Amino acid sequence: MNIIEEKERSIIRELARRLAELAHSDENSYRQKLWLDVNSLRKPERPPVICHPGGGAWGESLPSESVICKDPYLSSLEYQFRQTLYKWELGDDTVISPWMSVPSVMRLEGQYFWGLPIGYVSVRYEDVSLTAWRYDPPIKEESDIERIVPPRYHYDDTATQENLSRMHDLLGDILPVKQTCSLPGPGAWLHGWATELRGVQQLLLDLMDRPEWVHRLMRILMEGFLSVMDQYEEMGVLTLNNTGTMACDDLPQADFDGKNIRLHDLWGRGESQEFQGVSPAQHEEFLIQYQKPILERFGLTYYGCCEDLTNKIPLILSISNLRKFVCSPWTDIGKLAEAVGDRYVIEWRQKATDVVYASDLTDMRKHLERGLHLAKGCRIQIVLQELETTNHNPRRLADWSALAKEVGAQAYN
Question: Quick one: residue 91, left, alpha or beta (phi over 0 = left, psi -120 to 50 = alpha)?
C-alpha cells in the first residue's frame, strides 16, 4: 500500500469513527425513539423532523470538489459519510445507523427491467440531465405489449462476499459490517413503469380510448413485480427495513424466527404521481386494484408522494395494511387529519419553494402552526424534500429544521 492509499484510507476511517461516535450517542437514541414512537402509533415527545436535500441542493451545500479521496471506491464512501455528517449538523432528526451497510449484489437477467429500453428526449439539450425531458417510450403500438419481458434476478454471492470482505477490511473494527438487501425499484410503481413504457400523455389517453388494453398492461406489470418479490423472498436475501426513520415496533411480525425474513416482515410503499389528474374511480380501476396485491404482501405500507390525494383519501385508506399516509403540500392536511385521527401516521411534506425562496421563515412558522393545529391528536412527522436548490442559502435548511422542531414541541405541550 502506497502513501496516498494509506492517507485516503485514514480519511475514511476517521470519518467512520465520527459516525460511530454519533451513532452511539444519547442524541441519536433520542431521535430514534421519536421515529419509533410515531411509526408505532404512539405519541412521541414531539413530531420528528427530517430534511432531505436533493441533487442540486447537495451540489450547493457539499460540492463534489470537497471530496479529498481520488480512489473511486473511497471517494464514494467519503462523500456518503460527509453527507451524513452534514445532515447531522443540520439539526433535524437524522438517525445514524451503528453499522456499515453493504448491499447484496443482485443481477438482472438482460439489460432492461421490462426487457425494453426506456428512451428520453430533451426539450432543448442533448444531455437530458440539463433540462426538462419527456419519455421516448418503447411501446408505440398496442401489439408492442407482447415485447415486455418480466424481470428475473439472481443473487451473486461471490461478488457480495468480495464487497463484504473489502468493507470489513476497511472499517470492520470501527463499524460492524452488515449485508443488506431490498426489492428493486420504488415499491408498487406500476403507474411509473406504465408511463415509462407508454408515455405519460399517451397512457392517460389510453385510459379513455383503450381501457381493456390498459388493464392488460397493468396486470402484466403487477404479475411481473409479484414474481420479483417471490424471487427475492425465495432466495432468502431480504433484510429488515424497520430502522432509522422507518423504525416500528410492529415489524417484523410476532412469529419472526430471527433468521428467515419474509415480505410481511417488511415495509412496502406505493404512490401515484402520474395519476394526479385521474378521478378516484379511474385511480381505483386502473391502479389501486393492481397495487393492492403487491402492497398487501408486506407487513405494513405507506402511500403517497407529491400528488394531491385530498379527493382520494377513502381510496388510499382502503389499503388494508396502510400505516402511513404521505400528505403532500397539495393534499389538504385538515381533511386528512379528520379522516385518519390517530389510527395512521401522517407524513406531512412541506413545499420546498416556500422554504428556500422566502425572505424569512415567518410565513412558514404560521403554516406549521396552522397545520399542526389542524392535525392535533394525530401521529405526524414533518418532512422537507424535493430540494433541488437552497437558493444559495444552505443555512436556511438548518433554520427550517430548528423552526419545525420548535413549533412541533410547542404544539405537543
Answer: left
